[in-house]
TrEMBL record, chain A:
InterPro entries: BPD_transp_1_N, MetI-like, MetI-like_sf. This is ABC transporter substrate-binding protein. GO terms for biological process: transmembrane transport. Residues 112-321 form the ABC transmembrane type-1 domain. Its main location: membrane. It comes from Cypionkella aquatica. One of its GO terms (cellular component) is plasma membrane.
From TrEMBL, chain B:
Keywords: ATP-binding, Cell membrane, Membrane, Nucleotide-binding, Transport. It comes from the Bacteria. This is Peptide ABC transporter ATP-binding protein. PANTHER family: DIPEPTIDE TRANSPORT ATP-BINDING PROTEIN DPPD, OLIGOPEPTIDE TRANSPORT ATP-BINDING PROTEIN APPD. Residues 12-260 form the ABC transporter domain. It comes from Cypionkella aquatica.
Length: 335, 341
């Protein structure tokens, strides 16, 4: 298992390098100029100077190599300096956002907590709702509960978040007035009332995304349970005189969780990616919103860095899913 | 060997029906039999004759729905297994009645090690601690002939061969010292040399532990090797029942005779093609009102079309060997009805 993990990690390096090049070139090819948001009254020679100052006039390959150096050396070094007070980075230039002129990672550091609390909670809530629904739906296949679960999943699958989110705003914020319509990014949780406030403002985005997540995962759980419910070893477990609870929640579930855990692990990068539509809908100032803003402003370093971070996360969680698979299923050995 | 004491298992008038969209399937029709203490009862019949369904009905292993047990009683000692609560039945399963299934490759849970799987019934029924159950599991594995038993407790099913897995299944079935062991074609999925080993093992365990065994198979060779008594099933009914020697020497039912003819001979020249029984076993969409075998029977006559034959005792040369048969043709001349088996 260890050799397998190491081999996969080594293999990830060329994969990620190729991905980074493709991302860099693709984003660079996109039309638009970093000056598009500068007022038209600014004279052309000033614009030219500004572009030069950003380094945006350099050839794409030069910028790519510089970006690689900044991403893999300067940024980690700056991070370590920040933690331990060392001076590894030596004041070297970090990756700068063309839009805000601030280091890209500073912006990400500001945005990621919002995304993780809201989208992460939504994912967790989705899983916690989905697993019991999937298990019970499979155990009582074609029962009323199963039919309702199927309906619920179908709604979650097919209704886009911009619709369900709007509907939820109308119901819970406008009509019932339970929750605020806008997410207040400046709210800091210090005591009980502010915590309650945080929960209230999180409720609607979490509902919107939780519904979509639960729909997908509950279907996986259900079909995986059904696959295993008819297996011979289930009959063996019953023949041993075990209670239904042990038969279903131990023997069947343990086997059914294998593919579901993989699906859950593979979905985690999407939390970091944020949910662009949902974040915009509820005014959550997270990563998704940052990405959209950067794309609008042709902020190439920001877009490239974010896209590459998502790629790293996807590659990492693919590896984690594979390792989990090996841990959960004794039949799988990677060596 | 059978004695005159009360039977360990006494089944009367068992009827099991499967409810499907296309109507009802009468899988078990009025089956009655008993099992003596320490006896090995062989049950033969082709696929779909109701052997497995009958045995699974006894201890509630059939999924319901679609299965439904309509009538009958299953007395295990003083306990009627069809009347007791599901929880009480669970306390019987695995404790008083052990079950071995056909396919050892899929009958063990792939994600739990075998030590855990053997310990499960011990901990549930005997209230053993983890350590006690592990010690007993080692004993059981040694009993079924798995070398290095203590070291293998932590191994997973996929690390065992088919024959070894079936030994593990037997160990699980025997874990709580059951009164009755039901083996549902335990050697069918194994190759012949392994099959012989498992048969030897069961013979040996029978002598050591003295439980009664019901052995389901469609292999008459296996029956001849180990059974005390044989029950032949067809169309969800018992069509003939006799001690093993009597049955092989003096088969009465045309179906039993046909079955015996299908055994290929290993000696002599290859004179003829293998014997087969023409046609398909019936799918019982209703309770039988005529002989289930009539369509394939070479001796069928008018009465077979209108009346389902009841089991009747057969005497050979004026002596009763505990042989009975359900056939109008076989019982036509001189028989007396038996009320129960």
């Amino acid at each position: 298992m260890l050799t397998f993990t190491l081999r996969r990690l080594l293999l990830a390096i060329p994969t990620l390098l190729v991905i980074s090049l493709v991302i860099f070139l693709l984003v660079d090819l996109a039309p638009g100029s970093p000056m598009s948001e500068i007022p038209l009254t600014v004279p052309p020679e000033v614009r030219k100077k500004m572009i030069e100052a950003l380094g945006a006039d350099q050839p794409v390959m030069v910028r790519y190599v510089l970006w690689l150096r900044q991403f893999f050396w300067v940024e980690p070094a700056t991070l370590i300096d920040g933690w331990f007070g060392t001076n590894w980075a030596g004041g070297e230039q970090r990756i700068l956002s063309w839009q805000s002129r601030a280091p890209v990672f500073t912006v990400i550091g500001q945005r990621i907590p919002q995304t993780l609390t809201v989208i992460g909670t939504a994912y967790l809530v989705g899983i916690l709702i989905a697993l019991p629904i999937g298990i019970y739906s499979a155990y009582r296949q074609y029962s009323l509960f199963d039919q309702l679960g199927t309906l619920f999943a179908m709604i979650g699958f097919s209704v886009p978040t911009f619709f369900s989110g709007t509907l939820i705003i109308i119901i819970f914020a406008v009509t019932l007035g339970w929750f605020p319509t806008k997410y207040d990014t400046n709210l800091s949780v210090t005591d009980w009332p502010s915590f309650v406030k945080q929960l209230q403002q999180m409720a609607m985005p979490v509902m919107t995304l939780g519904l979509a997540n639960a729909a997908v995962i509950s279907r996986y759980m259900r079909s995986s349970m059904l696959d295993n419910m008819g297996m011979d070893y289930v009959r063996t477990a019953r023949a041993k005189g075990l209670t239904e609870r042990v038969v279903v929640l131990k023997h069947v579930l343990r086997n059914s969780m294998i593919p579901v855990v993989t699906v859950i692990a593979l979905g985690i990068p999407s939390i970091f990616g944020g949910a662009i539509i949902t974040e915009n809908l509820f005014g959550v100032n997270g990563i998704g919103a940052a990405l959209i803003g950067a794309i609008h402003a042709s902020d190439l370093p920001m877009v490239q860095t974010l896209a590459f971070i998502f790629a790293v996360l996807i590659v990492t969680f693919n590896l984690i899913a594979d390792v989990l698979y090996g841990l959960l299923d004794p039949r799988i050995r990677y060596d | 060997m059978p004695d005159r004491a009360a039977p360990v298992l006494d089944v009367r008038g068992l009827k099991t029906v499967f409810r499907t969209r296309g109507g009802e399937i009468h899988a078990v029709n009025d089956v009655s039999f008993h099992l003596e203490r320490g006896e090995l009862l062989g049950v033969v019949g082709e696929s779909g004759s109701g052997k497995s369904v009958t045995m699974m009905s006894l201890i509630g292993l059939l999924p319901s729905p679609p299965a439904e047990i309509r009538a009958g009683s299953v007395m295990l000692g003083e306990l009627d297994l069809l009347k007791i609560s599901p929880e009480a039945l669970r306390r019987v399963r695995g404790a008083k009645v052990g079950f071995i299934f056909q396919d050892p490759m899929t009958s063990l849970n792939p994600v739990f090690n075998i030590g855990f799987q053997i310990a499960e019934p011990l901990r549930r029924h005997m209230g053993m601690t983890k350590a006690q159950a592990a010690a007993r599991a080692v004993e059981l594995l040694e009993l079924v002939g798995i070398p290095d038993a203590a070291k293998r407790l932590g191994d997973y099913p996929h690390q065992f061969s088919g024959g070894m897995r079936q030994r593990v299944m037997i160990a699980i079935a025997l874990a709580c010292d059951p009164d009755v062991l039901i083996a549902d074609e335990p050697t069918t999925a194994l190759d012949v040399t392994i099959q012989a080993q498992i048969l030897e093992l069961v013979k040996e365990l029978r002598v050591k532990l003295g439980m009664a065994i019901i052995w389901i198979t469609h292999d008459l060779g296996v029956i001849a090797a180990i059974a005390d008594r044989v029950m032949v099933m067809y169309g969800g009914q018992i069509v003939e029942q006799a001690p093993v020697r009597e049955l092989f020497a003096n088969p009465q039912h045309p179906y039993t005779r046909a079955l015996l003819k299908t055994i290929p001979s290993l000696t002599g020249a290859r004179e003829a093609r293998l014997q087969v029984i023409e046609g398909q076993p019936p799918i019982m969409t209703a309770a039988p009102t005529a002989c289930a075998f009539r369509a394939r029977c070479t001796h069928a006559f008018a009465r077979c079309e209108v009346e389902n034959p009841q089991r009747a005792r057969i005497d050979t040369m004026g002596l009763s060997f505990g042989h009975d048969v359900a056939c109008h043709w076989a019982t036509a001349p001189k028989t007396s009805e038996v009320s129960n088996a």
